[in-house]
Amino acid sequence: MRRILFQLHLAAATVAGVFIVVLGLTGSVMAFEDELDRLTHPRLFRVVPEGSPLPLDVLRARAAAVQPGKPVVGYGFGVTPDLAWWVSVGGAQIFVNEYTGEILGVRSGQTWLAQIHQLHLRLLAGDTGRTIVAWAGLVMLFLTASGLYLWWPVKRIAINVAAGGRRAWFDVHNAVGVLTLAFLFVLALTGSVIGFERFTTPWLYGMTGSAPVPGAAAVVPRSGVAPVTPDEAVAIARATLPGAVPIGVNVPGPKAAYRVALRYPEDRTPGGRSRVYVDPYGGAVVRAESSRTTAAGTRLINLNRAIHTGDVFGFTSKTVMSLTSLAAVLQAFSGLMMWIRRPRRRPTFPD
Question: How far apart are CA 294 and CA 257, in angstroms?
């Protein structure tokens, strides 16, 4: 049994090794995607808080002047007072100092971090890449389980660097594998749940006896009613979900509602998990969804994603998941080195 499992472990690692390396490297970066974006583009993000932010209509006018003739479709808010806001104009993001109205910069197209994100999700290969990523997650689950079985009789953690060669790589593979086993398993499991969400999402809702909260229905335009401004829509959303901080709002079409995205302090996911839909004709709340009280299935899905990305506990869990992703890369590399340095049988020739 041990010999068979070893061969299966080797075969699975050989087939999925390249993909595990790609996912590990990109995942280690994605854990700090927002932080790296701000670090590498301080001119776009950093502002000095000075009183209260300007009204969105003022920021809209400033941003629209940069991209004349293009529609303003939404606003994004910094999650802390020292982060800039942005206005989405056409296909570009116009970063603006919300206190002074100064235009900080324009960004359009995919950033290098966005490309890394897509490489991690789809290998830059669309649905085919997404399927490969999902199966690579399942292979990683098998490798962690079979690796534990293979390690158990040896129970070796120490690394004998002096031994050199295959023995040293064998020790590295064993030590890193067992010390990060639990985290690697969680990373692979949560990633598989995301990768196979076509099946796991209905199962989670069915298991909890819940259903997803639907989005906002279409609104009916009404004449003679003063339209609600984006600032008013945000204020209504704040009052609807006290304690949640707005992080974005769209500019709706004539038959659509405002969609205000918010997040509570415990929700460290960049996009937030709460939303309020506001009727632009009168300001009635069409629908509201709080991450604290939403459907049980939705809460499990959100929790799974937060664990996988490391958002669940903030900087500490992000660091853990980033290092775990790198550990997966090291496991693939050390396994490769063990295979390269394997003892080879000398061929025999007849007399």
Answer: 20
For domain 37-113, give the fold. Nuclear Transport Factor 2; Chain: A, (3.10.450)
State whether the Cα torsion 134-139-143-149 is positive or negative: positive
126-151 vs 181-195: helix axis angle to the nearest 10? 150
**Domain 230-294 top-level CATH class:** alpha beta
Predicted pLDDT of residue 211: 96
Please, what's the b/e burial string for 263-287 (b: 16 or more CB within 10 A of its CB; e: otherwise)?
A: bbeebbeeebbbbbbbbbbebebbe
pLDDT tens digit string along 40-68?
999 999 999 999 999 999 999 999 999 99
DSSP string, 69-88: TS-EEEEE--SSTTB-EEEE
Q: What is the DSSP letter of 93?
A: E
Give the sign of the dihedral formed by CA 78, CA 89, CA 39, CA 186: positive
Tokens 């929790």 sit on residue: 303
What tokens appear for 125 in the block?
Answer: 């290969």
